Every structure is written in structure tokens, then in C-alpha cells.
Inverse folding.
């Protein structure tokens, strides 16, 4: 027998709106069980801004309406190669961001998906794109991860929106058909109604994914019937992972998307209403592994120095670096001498470094030790920056997801019970009037000077 909570989970619930923020999406993919990746915002698509990131996929977010989504002209294209791509249609408007992220990540080989997401991928692999979209909408695990990042007010708003839409649908279904009357309407009335419709229309943003898969680059738009091929990649060699050069292939398509968005939003007074996000390797893991490698390089160099200079090697190196060496390799979250390793190739790179140190001439050892300490200082700064960034993101998540409404309601209730609410409202009204009066006097003085 299922209790009420479990029954609610089986029935499901709405997806809520999420902010288009890299920190939010990074937290989302980690809540989905994916490790070793993060989301960062890209401000240019030129090689100098993108290539060094080596992104696994891109997500393009832009302002759109039903009239200008621009996807219908591709709906009739049948591509047999697209059947190999994991692609889900978008069936829930507010799940657009999560659906785009899943479309990208479930086509990326070599990443750690996590047990639940890996099982989800296997179970839906041979489904149609519509059924995959339905599986996303019906997944309690995905919906819970998505909604955990939303504001409580947005969650309540989504539930109220569904309730209002259901009531409106029932009223329309049960209402008798209205008798049509031909009336003469002026063009001014039509323009007024169109303006009111435009004002009441809420901005809607759409997310499109780009990912390299099966030696091709694909555009994954959940509003289309299937994935759209952007271009082909060169055959990968044994040393590459199949992602080399894919940014060069997708760059023209992104330029066209951006140009189209600027043309469609030409009445927005020059405001850019789109952004580009990249799914890249976790920066903290990269710089942390770099610092850990330098720790082991320092140990290997000091062992070799002790063998070469039996009388003592400390006088052969810079004394300032020697004094700071012990604190250089310690971070705020890793006070121990050696920390966790993330990279799978760390062991092979460490072995290569130790072999090169064994083959190094004795006269170059002090210089190599000093270079190692200087590099560790830069690596430590990078690690501390990532730690601070993660702490700030966690703080923002707590502030965003905390429900302030019960406190505000209780606070106002207490003011009312103590008889302080009316006086507080009166003071606020008086202060607002006092702030408006100088403005009115300034305007009257300006008019008087104009008449003179």
C-alpha cells in the first residue's frame, strides 16, 4: 500500500523555471550524478576563446516565441544517421534546459554518468525521440534534481499554473458554443489588442544543444523531430577522443544562430538576448591534479638532490622559495601532504615525470626545483580561486532555494497582532510622499524658468 507521498511521486509534478546561469547548471549536472564536468559561459566563439576549453558540448540559449522558433522547416528531414544519436523531444516547456543538457551529455563518451542516469540511458536507448522526452518528463529522479534548484515561489507558481489551466480547460469544455456576431472593429482597436497581447506575453527562452557524436556534429533541438547534422568530422586517430576540431565545424552554425537572434530582436534597443554555455572538464579537478603532480615532482627532485649533494642541497636553491615551500602545497581544503587524484592518466604522467628527473643532469636539479615551487604557487592560487567560486555558488544556491515566505507571513502577522502594522504602513506612505514632493517642486521650478 503506497502512502500519500509515494503516490504523489508516481503521479509526477511540474518542472519549474530555472535561471540560465552556469552555476545553476553545474549544480544540476552534479545532482544528476555526473562527476568531473562543469558549465561555463562563453562570450565569444573565436578560437582564442573556445579551443583551450576543449568543450564536450555547447548549449545555446535564446529568446524565442512560437512565431519565430524557426524549426518547422527541418521537420520533414529524415536522416538515418540521426537514429544513432540519443535525442529526446521537449514535452515540457519549463524542462527545456534539463532536456538540452541531457541531450548533450548522453551523447558524450568517456564521462561518468552515475548509476541512475546510466540506467536511464540504457532503458531509453531504443525508444523514439517522443518516448525519450516522455521518459524525461516522467522521471522522478530527473524532476527532483531539476526542481531542487528552483525558487520555492516558482514551484508554487508552476503548480498554480497547472491548476488554473485545468480549470480554464474545464470551463471551455463545459461552456455552450458562443454565437458569432459580425461587428465592425476599427484598426485602432486591433492595434490596442495586439499591444495588450504583447505586454502580457511572457519572455520564453529556448535551449539548443550542440555535440560531436559518431564522427559528426549534431544540433539537438527538442522542438524538432530528430537531431540535425551540422557537419562531418575528420576520422579520429588512436590518440584523440573524437572531439578534435569539432568547434571549427559548429562555429558557422553558431554565427548564423546568433545573427538570426539579433535580427529577430532588432526592436530590443541593442540588447543581446542570448548566451552560449559550454560543458567542460571540472576546472577544480584540473588545477588540483596539477598541484598534486607538482607535489610529487618536488618529492622526486628532493630525493635526487639528496643523492647528488650528500653534504646538503638547501644552500643551492633560492632561500625565499625554500622558506615558503612547505606552505606552497597546502590548500584550505587539503592540509595533508597528498590529496585525491581525479585524472585517469595521472599515474602515467607521474611516471614520465619521474623518469625525466632521473635522467636530468645534476647541475639542472636546483633550477628545476625552483621552477617547480614557482609553478606550485600559481597552481595553488588557481585551486583557491576554484574553492572560492564553489563556495559562492553554494551560498547562492542556499539563498535561491530557501523559502522566505513563511517568515515574511509570520512577521507581518506579528506586526498586526501587536498593533504595529498600520503605523508601519503609514510611515512608509508618508516617506514615499516626502520623496515625491521635491521632484514635483523641481519640475515646477523648471517650468517657471522656461517661461521666463
Amino acid at each position: 500500500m503506497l502512502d500519500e507521498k509515494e503516490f504523489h511521486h508516481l503521479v509526477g509534478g511540474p518542472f519549474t523555471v530555472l535561471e540560465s546561469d552556469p552555476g545553476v547548471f553545474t549544480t544540476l549536472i552534479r545532482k544528476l550524478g555526473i562527476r568531473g564536468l562543469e558549465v561555463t559561459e562563453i562570450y565569444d566563439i573565436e578560437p582564442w576563446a573556445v579551443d583551450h576549453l576543449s568543450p564536450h558540448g555547447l548549449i545555446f540559449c535564446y529568446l524565442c516565441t512560437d512565431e519565430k522558433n524557426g524549426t518547422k522547416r527541418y521537420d520533414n528531414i529524415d536522416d538515418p544517421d540521426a537514429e544513432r544519436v540519443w535525442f529526446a523531444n521537449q514535452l515540457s516547456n519549463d524542462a527545456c534546459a534539463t532536456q538540452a543538457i541531457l541531450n548533450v551529455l548522453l551523447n558524450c563518451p568517456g564521462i561518468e554518468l552515475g548509476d541512475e542516469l546510466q540506467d536511464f540511458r540504457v532503458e531509453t536507448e531504443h525508444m523514439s525521440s517522443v518516448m525519450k522526452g516522455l521518459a524525461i518528463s516522467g522521471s522522478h529522479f530527473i524532476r527532483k534534481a531539476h526542481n531542487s534548484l528552483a525558487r520555492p515561489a516558482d514551484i508554487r507558481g508552476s503548480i498554480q499554473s497547472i491548476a488554473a489551466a485545468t480549470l480554464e480547460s474545464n470551463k471551455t469544455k463545459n461552456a455552450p458554443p458562443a454565437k458569432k456576431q459580425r461587428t465592425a472593429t476599427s484598426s485602432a482597436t486591433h492595434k490596442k489588442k495586439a499591444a495588450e497581447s504583447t505586454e502580457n506575453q511572457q519572455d520564453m527562452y529556448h535551449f539548443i544543444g550542440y555535440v560531436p557524436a559518431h564522427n559528426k556534429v549534431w544540433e539537438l533541438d527538442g522542438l524538432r523531430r530528430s537531431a540535425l547534422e551540422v557537419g562531418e568530422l575528420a576520422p579520429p586517430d588512436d590518440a584523440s577522443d573524437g572531439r578534435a576540431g569539432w568547434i571549427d565545424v559548429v562555429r558557422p552554425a553558431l554565427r548564423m544562430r546568433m545573427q538570426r537572434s539579433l535580427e529577430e530582436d532588432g526592436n530590443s534597443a541593442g540588447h543581446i538576448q542570448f548566451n552560449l554555455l559550454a560543458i567542460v572538464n571540472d576546472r577544480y579537478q584540473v588545477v588540483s591534479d596539477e598541484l598534486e603532480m607538482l607535489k610529487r615532482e618536488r618529492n622526486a627532485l628532493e630525493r635526487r638532490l639528496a643523492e647528488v649533494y650528500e653534504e646538503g642541497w638547501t644552500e643551492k636553491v633560492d632561500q625565499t622559495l625554500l622558506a615558503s615551500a612547505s606552505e606552497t602545497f597546502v590548500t584550505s581544503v587539503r592540509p595533508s601532504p597528498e590529496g585525491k587524484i581525479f585524472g585517469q592518466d595521472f599515474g602515467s604522467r607521474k611516471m614520465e615525470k619521474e623518469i625525466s628527473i632521473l635522467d636530468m643532469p645534476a647541475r639542472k636539479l636546483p633550477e628545476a626545483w625552483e621552477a617547480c615551487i614557482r609553478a606550485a604557487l600559481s597552481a595553488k592560487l588557481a585551486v583557491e580561486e576554484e574553492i572560492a567560486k564553489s563556495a559562492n555558488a553554494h551560498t547562492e544556491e542556499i539563498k535561491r532555494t530557501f523559502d522566505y515566505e513563511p517568515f515574511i507571513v509570520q512577521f507581518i502577522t506579528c506586526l498586526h497582532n501587536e498593533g504595529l502594522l498600520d503605523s508601519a504602513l503609514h510611515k512608509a506612505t508618508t516617506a514615499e510622499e516626502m520623496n515625491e514632493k521635491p521632484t514635483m517642486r523641481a519640475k515646477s521650478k523648471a517650468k517657471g524658468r522656461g517661461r521666463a
Notes: The longest strand covers residues 204-213. The chain has three domains: 8-153+201-281, 285-399, 405-445. The CA atoms of residues 98 and 146 lie 7 Å apart.
